[in-house]
Structures are given as structure tokens and as C-alpha cells.
From TrEMBL:
<dbReference type="InterPro" id="IPR051010">
    <property type="entry name" value="BCAA_transport"/>
</dbReference>
<keyword id="KW-0732">Signal</keyword>
<feature type="domain" description="Leucine-binding protein">
    <location>
        <begin position="34"/>
        <end position="372"/>
    </location>
</feature>
<dbReference type="InterPro" id="IPR028081">
    <property type="entry name" value="Leu-bd"/>
</dbReference>
<dbReference type="Pfam" id="PF13458">
    <property type="entry name" value="Peripla_BP_6"/>
</dbReference>
<dbReference type="InterPro" id="IPR028082">
    <property type="entry name" value="Peripla_BP_I"/>
</dbReference>
<comment type="similarity">
    <text>Belongs to the leucine-binding protein family.</text>
</comment>
<feature type="signal peptide">
    <location>
        <begin position="1"/>
        <end position="21"/>
    </location>
</feature>
<protein>
    <submittedName>
        <fullName>ABC transporter permease</fullName>
    </submittedName>
</protein>
Amino acid sequence: MKKSKWVKASFLAACSVMLMAGCSGKSSGSSDDTIKVGVLASQTGALETYGKQTIQGFELGLEYATDGTNEVDGKKIEFIVEDTETKPDVAVKKATKLLEEDEVDFLVGSSSSGDTLAVLPLAEEYEKIMVVEPAVADSITGENWNKYIFRTGRNSSQDAVAGAASIAEKDVKIATLAQDNAYGREGIEAFKEGAEKLGADIINEQYADPNSTDFTANIQNIIKDKPDYLFIVWAGSNAPWKQLKDMKVEEQGIKISTAAQDINSLKTMDSLMGMSGYSIYYYTLPDNEVNDWLVEKHKEKYDGEVPDLFTAGGMSAAISIVEAIKKTDGDTEAETLIEAMEGMEFETPKGTMKFRPDDHQALQSLYAITLEEEEGVDHPVPVLIRELDMNETEPPVRNK
């Protein structure tokens, strides 16, 4: 197949900036001794930080899972990164390029649920395994799922179960605030389900424009109903924390609870010091050998920086692929991989994960935490109350 100059240049550029075991001048077609992985990530745009972490984590995951050889069963593993720009149409274009021109054996990604949902049908069309990381929308392993989709990232329902376990109990009154998008609405829907099972009453639901910076009307609406808790589902830098403080929500007896997400988000949460909530990952919370390795290696490689939420996610995705290839003795045929991966358990920075056979969602631990001040740290630090194990955080099966 003749390649354009652009494709050759893109491939050479990828070789120069990414770890690509066995990278050579050939850019198309996996040879018998090479396995290719196409990674879709937001390298530019609002989710650029998420994409950067995922890529770094994926590289470290390959290193860890292959003992530094980037080989499994005698086959080299290389990965090619494409920037989705956090635009679904671009994600489809880049995924098609990876599948048709680079002829990858696996897809991984993406940073955005919208991008990921747009790409899911391609995995089915080309019969290639797609490991979803870190997109969280329930519909990815729910109504839009197909059998080629496996997800190492947690989903909205797992978040919701953890959030509910942190604050919900009989007769507790809870209001919610979320972005008016798939992530926000699915997150609240799942939270309500979990909280109501524990006996709580959801008395007010507020949804705001994802790009809004003024939440006055939403907050006033919540205050008038006098809930015991305000539970918030939010992703991005325009979070409402400062305005909640300015409007003295907690001084009116309303406790705020939310996810302690990545470190950039934590840096905006000074006003939530002392909050009870949950964490998906913070580098001090898991107690296992894989996480110990990740923290040490990441500090060594990135000038003392600690790994973040999506770094651990990228690493988990890479480990799952390597472990699947080991189970199939190097066979990358989709049906063989599906059989091997359904029910597969593998060790990650968050401990053991397991791909549930029903929908290929990775069951995993999350963490009930409080936010506390720590000397020398420029953000509130999640402090462990208790680990919520994979059985406790198991979400409902939502696929067809």
C-alpha cells in the first residue's frame, strides 16, 4: 500500500517522541514479530493534561509488564499516538488512520467520552480490541457497547457507588450539581441509584453549561431546599468550588462532597478542605507493589514528579494488553483475545482489576477519603478513610 508523505512523516515523528519498541522504517502492517497499539489521546485542547498522563502511563505500563523488554512471547510491542483534539470527528479520522494505514492490533483511548463513543463502532467494524481509558461515560460499556470494547478506566456508575458510599444513609437529604453533558448526567443518574439504595433522598438536581463560570442560579436553587449534602460531578478547570465558598454554602449547614480527581483539580479545591468524598486514584492511597514501582519510576523519569490519576490509568491499560497477549501466546485475533480477556484478572497501580464478562468493564477499587492540609504540598491531600474494593464498587450491567 502506497503511503503519502504525510503518513510517513507522522510515523517518523511518532517514532522520535514515543517509546516504540522495534520501530523501523515500515509504517504499515503488523509483521509476525511486531504487535502495534494505536493510542488515541487529547494531546491538545482542554483535556491535554489527561492525554499527556495517559501516554506517559501507557509507556511505563509496557515497561513494567514486559520487564523493560517491550516484548511479549517473542514479539515486539510498539505504540503510535494520535491526537483527537477532543473532537469526535477528529477522533474517528485518527482511529481510521490507525486501523487502515498503520494496521494496529489494538486501539486504546480516549481522553473524552464523546471521542470514545464516536470511535466504538470502528472497533466492531474492523474487529479490533479497543481498551477504553480513561473515558467514563456509562454508555461506553452500556447502550453503545460492543464485544470488542474492554475498559480499564472506571465508569460513572463506579464513581457513583463510591460517592454514595461516602455520604448516603437513611433519610439524608442530598442535592446534586453536574455539567449538562453525558458525563454529568450519567454520573448523577448512577449516583441517585446508589444513594437511594442506601436510603438517601435526592431532593434537587442542577445541571450547568459545561463551559459556564457562573453558577449563581444553580447554587441559589440548591440553598433554598436546605439539603444535608451537595454532591457534585464535575471535570475541568472551571469547577464551582470558589463560588460555593463565596456564597457560603457550607456555612448554611450544607456539606459538599465530590470526587478528588487529578492533582490539577485538587489545586482548585482549597475551599473544600475537610470534605468527605472519594478518590479514583492518588499516588499515596494504593498499597501494592505495582503502585510502588510506578511512583518510584515516575519520579526517576520525570524530575521528581509523582504520577497522577490518568498516569495510573494509562499504565493499567498497557498491563491489560500485555497480560492478554501472554494468555493467547501472542495471538492477536480478536475472538481469541475476547475469550482470554473475559474474566481476566491483572495487577495494576490500583491493585487487582477484573474484566467482567458481561460488559468487559474492569472492576476495581476506589477510595473513601477526606481532604486534608499537608505541609509542603500545594493542594488538599486525599487521606484514606477506607478502600472500597471491586465488589463494593461493582456497577450495574447496563449493556443490551
